[in-house]
Amino acid sequence: MASAKLVFLCAVMAILSATTSAGLLDAIFVPTILQELYQLAPTKEGYRLNLEHPNGSKREEVGMVVNPGTPEEQLVVMGSYTVFDEKTDIETITMYTADKDGYKPRYMLKNRKLSGCTLKTCVG
């Protein structure tokens, strides 16, 4: 019974994929990246990536191969991403390292709003 359901599901997926144009699938599943907000540059050791969002969110990342050609060869990725929440005016910055030992993040929160004392000192 389970194999019949699997065959039916595969047949439905094959029919849908054959009748759906690739343009429609691209519009649904493939995000559009604006070239002026995205930079990916290969380097001798790996790559450098920069992404920016118009609301202030961004991602910067550097990936490099350490100890190339040896048994200890590994990819090390270091970077940070900043997410801005427009509702609360809070910016979350995450700095991270990812290597053979796993993903290690460090966080920092920033409030973009000025405090009342700061505003009073600006007025005089």
**Dominant shape:** elongated
Q: Which stretches are poorly predicted, pLDDT < 50 over at least 5 residues? A: 23-27
The helix count comes to: 3
Largest sheet: 6 strands, antiparallel
Q: In which range does the helix fraction lie?
A: 25-40%
How large a portion of the residues is in β-strands, by DSSP E? 35-45%
What spatial order of strands do you see in the largest sheet?
Answer: 1-2-3-4-5-6
Oligomer: single chain
Rg, Å, rounded: 23 Å
State mean pLDDT (0 to 100 scale). Answer: 75
Distance between the termini: 79 Å
Sketch the topology as an H/E string, one letter per element: HHEEEEEEH
Task: Give a written overview of the molecule.
This protein has 124 residues and is α+β, with helices and mostly antiparallel strands. It is 27% helix and 43% strand. It has three helices and six strands, in the order ααββββββα. The protein has a six-stranded antiparallel β-sheet, with no helix packed on it. The longest helix has 18 residues, at 2-19. The protein is elongated, with a radius of gyration of 23 Å. The chain starts with a helix and ends with a helix. Mean pLDDT is 75; it is low at 23-27.
